[in-house]
Amino acid sequence: MTPAPIAVALDAPDLETAARWAALVTPHVSTVKVGLELYLRYGPDVIASVRGASGVQVFLDLKLHDIPNTVAGASRAVSRLRPAILTVHAAGGPAMIRAAVESAASNTQIAAVTILTSLTEADLSRIGLAGPADDAVRRLAALSVEAGATALVCSPNEVSALRAEVGAGITLITPGVRPTGAAMQDQVRVATPEQALADGADLLVIGRPITGAADPGAAAAAIAASLRRHVP
Ligand SMILES: O=C(O)c1cc(=O)[nH]c(=O)n1[C@@H]1O[C@H](COP(=O)(O)O)[C@@H](O)[C@H]1O
After folding, report:
1. Is 156 in the pocket of ligand 1 (CB under 6 A)?
2. Residues 6+ apart with CB under 8 A from 80
3. Low-confidence stretches of the chain (pLDDT beneath 70)
4. Whose CB among 24, 101, 118, 224 lies 3.0–4.6 Å from 217's, allowing a Cys bridge?
5. How many CA atoms lie within 13 A of 93 on its CB side?
6. Which atom of ligand 1 is nearest the CA belonging to 33?
7. CA 230 → CA 127, 223, 225, 227, distances in Å?
8. DSSP states along 172-225
9. Which atom number of ligand 1 is nearest to the Cα of residue 116?
10. Ligand 1 contacts CB of residue 193 (under 6 A)
């Protein structure tokens, strides 16, 4: 069976736990995501540990955000790890995004994070982005694609508008995914996995609803099966 288009966020405090989660979920999902907690604790070695023997795609979520020269150096530094996806913040601007794209390995997609799924419209207004989240997401998406990003991160609430804006060739990645009845935790702009996929997402980022389950492998398999049932 083809693995579901899910990136499991391995936000674990230690490498053993992350590698165990990765091994449990990889039969069911296409991708595992390494974020700041693991990367800052263990460095590049963490990538090989979670990739394991399965050869699952690794999404390196470092959310780079700095001047273009610094981001180019960081993107070059991780290119030998061959992540399938590397994140940068779209708010770093077009020159920074272009620098990340030009310095990345040829088979690494640069994904520009538009507006974090943990932010409300009141938060956006306080940081100077007044108006609906959709507007800011669309503006950031347009400049990111123009700068060469081939993937965008947005909430499931914005994915259909963004798909209409950027067309089929751009990979749309949505965190902020919660199965019906799951706790929102620190996520704000959320939808169910089935809704996110039906609205046009290419890859769903799901962490705690899977990794917090008693059996992460079974939780991943259940979401994958539900996606196959509801969004053929
Ligand atoms: O870039 C991301 O992956 C990301 C962007 C965003 O806007 N919101 C967001 O939650 N994420 C990441 O997606 C994952 C979501 O995890 P859960 O909330 O546990 O499902 C975390 O690893 C976040 O770092």
Report:
1. no
2. 105
3. 232
4. 24
5. 6
6. 22
7. 38, 10, 9, 5
8. EEE--B--TT---TT--S-B-HHHHHHTT-SEEEE-HHHHTSSSHHHHHHHHHH
9. 7
10. no
Q: Does 64 appear as a known binding residue?
A: yes
| Residue 157 in contact with ligand 1 by CB distance below 6 A | no
pTM: 0.98
Work out the angle at residue 175's Cα, subtended by the Cα atoms of residues 173 and 177, and round it to the nearest 5 degrees. Answer: 120
Cα–Cα distance list, 136 to 106, 150, 152 (Å): 29, 18, 13
ipTM exceeds 0.95: yes
- 123 in a known ligand binding site: no
Is the beta carbon of 116 within 6 A of some atom in ligand 1? yes
pLDDT at 43: 96
| Rounded CA separation 104/85 (Å) | 10
Angle in degrees, 0-180, between the axes of helices 94-103 and 133-146, rounded to the nearest 10: 50
Give the pLDDT score at 55: 81
Active site residues: 63
Q: Whose CA is nearest to atom 20 of ligand 1?
A: 207
Closest ligand 1 atom to Cα of 177:
20
Is 121 in contact with 133 (CB distance < 8 Å)? yes
Contact between 206 and 221 (Cβ < 8 Å): no
